[in-house]
Every structure is written in structure tokens, then in C-alpha cells.
Design brief:
Radius of gyration: 19 Å
Strand order of the largest sheet: 6-7-10-8-9-11
Distance between the termini: 61 Å
Bound molecules: S-adenosyl-L-homocysteine
CATH architecture of the largest domain: 2-Layer Sandwich
Number of domains: 2
CATH superfamily of the largest domain: Tetrapyrrole methylase, C-terminal domain
Number of strands: 11
């Protein structure tokens, strides 16, 4: 009899942001397959005798090719185990959960998906940024900055997103931030648009930096910001000066932001 695979979102870091369902399944699992963004406090919820398989490494590079991760899930499920595939944030948000679900379907292994608090929502909430606001933004876009923005067949036409007037949430964008922000401005985004970087949101290492889209790449580099970080671009980002509540290191906020009331 095949076991079951649960694709489970572990949330952004703070263990209290785990869903009750995730908590229960982690505690019951016979095998846990996890990557680097999963907090140790969350892994500690697993049974002492649960098989633990680490399949990712810091920096976004995989120590395990995606195909191998899928084979591991299939092997464990074929051993009849209850398997939790634990991912940072939400499994279907830039987490390759879709590919893993497809691989399971292809071989007839049953699975369930447990949503998690994705890091953009968590970063915004803890930084004091309402991603939508009646006066400032009626739409939100989630984008990955991971792919090389200079490659000619880049899937993301960044210039288009400079015209949207939506709040932009960038995942995995720190390495390419200079090019991304330049292309957004080339597309019409004002250089003065507020941009907020939130690193290690919700954890003890949470840091945030508010600046403008023109300066964010340089300033965040100077302030030593790196992965994992979310960049929120849009008028709403400036609300963090008023609404930041998480006692964390707010690194700098030099500019006066004149928001429409
Ligand atoms: N499935 C995850 C995203 C995985 S991609 C989710 O839903 O959040 C990895 C990227 O997520 C990182 O490069 C970073 O952009 C973001 N990320 C994950 N955890 C984060 C955190 N605690 N703070 C800020 N960004 C985070």
C-alpha cells in the first residue's frame, strides 16, 4: 500500500504562524523531507523516530536536483510511509510544489496540500505594510526575481510591471535587484516610489529597510541585506514608517514620505 504525501507550508519562520493542520501532520509524519527555509523549531515538532531528509541548501542553490527530490518522495511513499514535504512559506508559491504534485500524480501516489503563510504576506504584515489600501493600491503582484533578468528570453517583462500601479512583491530578487529596479523605472515606475526590503521576516533576525526604488539596490547592499528577503515596491511600503509594530531592527528610513491621506 502506498503511503501519503502532504505538501505542507511551514510559513515564513515564526513557528506560531504554522497552521494547526501543518502542526498536526508534522507531529504524525513518519518521514519529513525539508529544505533550508524551515525553522529548526518547526522541525523539532516531528516525532523522534521520523526519518528526516534534508534536500536544500542556503543560498537558493539546491543540493538536490528537483528530480531527486521527487524520487525521494515517491520512494518514501512507496514504503507505505506518511510523508510530509515541508516547505518554507506556502508550497504553491515559488516552491515547486506544483512540480512535486505532478510527479506524484504521474505515479498514482495520493497527496494533499496544506497552505502556509507565504513570506510576502508575512514580511508585509510584520513590517507594517498593508499590501492593499483604499488610498494607495488595489492590486498586488507576486514575482520572482530569481531568473537572470538580462537573458533575452526572460519570462518577466519587468518594464510592464512598472506601469501597473500595483504593489509588487519580489521573491528571490536580491541578486538581480539593480537590474530589476532599473527595468521597472524604464517601464515608467517613478524613481521615488517607496521600496521596502524585509530580510528573515518574522524571525529573530528580522530586519527591514525603507528607501526608494531608485536607491534600494545600492542601499540594501550597503546595509548588508541578503537572502532570504522580500522586496515590496509601491506607495504602501511607506506606510511602514507609521505602522511598523514588530520590535525589530528598522535599519534606515531617511526619507520623509508624503502619503496621500
Ligand atoms: N514558498 C516560499 C517561497 C520560496 S522561494 C513562500 O511561500 O514564502 C524563497 C524566497 O522566499 C526567498 O528568496 C525570499 O525571497 C522568500 N522568503 C522566504 N522566507 C522568508 C523570510 N522569512 N523573510 C523574507 N523572505 C523570505
Amino acid at each position: 500500500m502506498n503511503g501519503m504525501v502532504y505538501l505542507v507550508g511551514a510559513g515564513p519562520g515564526d513557528p506560531e504562524l504554522l497552521t494547526r493542520k501543518a502542526h498536526r501532520l508534522i507531529g504524525e509524519a513518519e518521514a519529513i523531507v525539508y529544505d533550508y527555509l524551515v525553522a529548526p523549531e518547526i522541525l523539532a515538532l516531528a516525532r523522534a523516530d521520523a526519518e528526516r531528509v534534508f534536500v536544500g541548501k542556503k543560498g537558493g542553490g539546491f543540493c538536490c536536483p528537483q528530480r531527486d527530490i521527487e524520487s525521494i518522495l515517491i520512494r518514501l511513499a512507496r514504503e507505505g510511509k506518511s510523508v510530509v514535504r515541508l516547505k518554507g512559506g506556502d508550497p504553491f508559491m515559488f516552491g515547486r510544489g506544483g512540480e512535486e504534485a505532478e510527479a506524484l500524480v504521474a505515479v498514482g501516489i495520493p497527496f494533499e496540500v496544506v497552505p502556509g503563510v507565504t513570506s510576502a504576506l508575512a514580511a508585509a504584515a510584520y513590517a507594517g505594510v498593508p499590501l492593499t489600501h483604499r488610498a494607495h493600491a488595489s492590486a498586488v503582484v507576486f514575482l520572482t526575481g530569481h531568473e537572470d533578468p538580462n537573458k533575452p528570453d526572460s519570462a518577466i517583462h519587468w518594464e510592464d510591471y512598472g506601469k501597473l500601479g500595483a504593489t509588487l512583491c519580489l521573491y528571490m530578487s536580491m541578486k538581480n535587484l539593480e537590474t530589476i529596479t532599473r527595468r521597472l523605472q524604464a517601464g515608467g515606475l517613478s524613481a521615488e516610489t517607496p521600496a521596502l526590503v524585509v530580510q528573515s521576516a518574522t524571525t529573530g533576525n528580522h530586519r527591514q529597510l525603507l528607501t526608494s526604488v531608485a536607491k534600494v539596490a545600492l542601499e540594501s547592499e550597503h546595509a548588508g541585506f541578503g537572502s532570504p528577503a522580500i522586496v515590496v515596491i509601491g506607495e504602501v511600503a511607506a506606510l511602514s514608517t507609521k505602522l511598523a509594530w514588530f520590535e525589530s531592527a528598522v535599519v534606515a528610513s531617511a526619507t520623509e514620505w508624503n502619503l496621500r491621506p
